[in-house]
Predict the 3D structure of the following.
Amino acid sequence: MSNVLLLSMPQGMEWVIIILAILLLFGGKKIPELMRGIGKGIREFNDAKNNVSREIRDSMNDEPKKSEEK
């Protein structure tokens, strides 16, 4: 399965063509804005993921304390 995945990944010249197509579609001035937007989205996703993990950990730590009080 991993061999099939490696064969489908773009190789050297294909990356050049992809980058040129992106430059033609978005232009040089729009690419930094696009990258900033992608970075902001990734940052927000990671923050949300960390908040959910923290809430789950906190709720797991609080549960035994509540059952000890009874």
Remarks:
- Residues 2-69 form one domain.
- The radius of gyration is 22 Å.
- The CA atoms of residues 34 and 40 lie 10 Å apart.
- The chain has a mean pLDDT of 82.
